[in-house]
Sequence to fold (230 residues):
Amino acid sequence: MARFYDMDEHHMNSNDKHKDALRTLQLQFVGKLLAGFTHETKNYLAIIKESVGLIGDMLKMGKLSRNDVPEYFNIINSINEQIEKANDLFKYLNRFAHRMDTPLSAFNVNESLEELSGLLNRFANQKRIVLEKQFQKDLPQIYSNPSLLQLLVFNIIESGMPRLDRNSTISIQTHHTDGFIDIRIILKGTVLEEGASSHELNDSIIKELGGQLSLMGGTETFIHLPVRNM
Fold:
């Protein structure tokens, strides 16, 4: 018996495949950020442990003279600095996790990009690339999907890093005009590979965000988002 081609069924299968691909991409995204977070946290704890051990060694040697007080304060300041860095990282991860609680919410674009760049610092440092932030102050809150926006920006930054030589910069800029939030991601420095590489799902993500995605000159990506995604 002949089976007629069902367009609705085909559309549903295609839509399901898209959702599965996007879900897989999001899981990979979360996994990479968690891996970077754990490595950074271990580094901070290792430095704290080393500093505490140094203080212990100095005490065992009986170095308690006034001349050694500045050295103690330097060690204590180093410990406090590592604790603050770890606290910032935990704060970024906590906010990042809560952004997935609801598909749509009101949020500050600058804050979402700040936490994303904080969680990406390890990957940038490994490649000797600086993540430069130039955020316009007092941006209005945007009503959209924060986790999808972070995924989109992550895809763009991750695809840009291999194209840059060491000691280059990726600039993340925000601007507000006429009911829209603009995000520019610019590769600055020696570009090793010409052309703009982008993830195949980026176009689908920007459609869900109700915005526009433009690639300019191979080194600049422009994200144009409505303040309220209806």
Notes: The radius of gyration is 23 Å. The chain has one domain: 30-226. Residues 7-60 form the longest helix (54 residues). Residues 1-5 have pLDDT under 50 and may be disordered.
